[in-house]
Amino acid sequence: MEVSFRRRQRWRKKVQRLRRERGWDNVSDKVILFFSTINGYHHFRIMPTQFSWNHPYMMECIPEPTNRRDPLAVLVKEMGVNITIGRVPKDICNVISLEMRVTQKLRRTFCLYIGTHHNEGPVPSGGLKLHCVYVLEFSNDTSYRRLGEVASFLRRHVPSSYIYL
Question: What is the CATH number of the domain that holds 96?
Fold first, then answer.
């Protein structure tokens, strides 16, 4: 997945503006933002269709503990609607699921489709990957050390230049 520096900066500003518009921009919030993909198009067959720069396609990330293959799986659903778009990539879903369910420090996780995708070939582990920006909002009592640990884990699976604290 390739996202230019300029495009990443534009999306960071877009996320800040969106959080402010929704009243989610509490000064004491601690936020990690990173660029990755949504997997599972081959299974769910739903792609964001109402995408535009002014009205981004917003999705929420919800743990899926009943998943037989991976109890740490995280679904990506259209915000406010029970329509599943896909799943958070396997190695990244672990941190989201554990932070939400175990430490309970992760208050909100959402992602925005950035309008591009790529195909990694036939499934399994391939298929169409939708490019997005993930936003992890932690409670204000989360230590900066803990944020660093989460970012360090993400760096194993996402290029460092695609992660913002």
Answer: 3.30.70.2330
Q: How many domains does the chain have?
A: 1
Model pLDDT, residue 126: 66
96, 136 Cβ separation under 8 angstroms: yes
Query: Mean pLDDT for each consecutive 10-residue tract of the chain (165 residues)?
Result: 86 90 80 93 77 78 94 92 91 92 90 85 74 94 93 94 92
What are the beta bridge partners of residue 36? 132
Residue 2 has what pLDDT? 81
Say if 91 falls within a structural domain. Answer: yes
pTM of the model: 0.90
Q: How far is the C-alpha of 7 from the C-alpha of 101, rounded, in Å?
A: 32
Q: Are 115 and 3 in contact (CB under 8 A)?
A: no
Q: Contact 62/77 with Cβ under 8 angstroms? A: yes
Asked, for residue 24, whether it belongs to a domain, the answer is no
Q: In this structure, is residue 12 part of a structural domain?
A: yes
| φ/ψ of residue 66, rounded to 5 | -85, 0
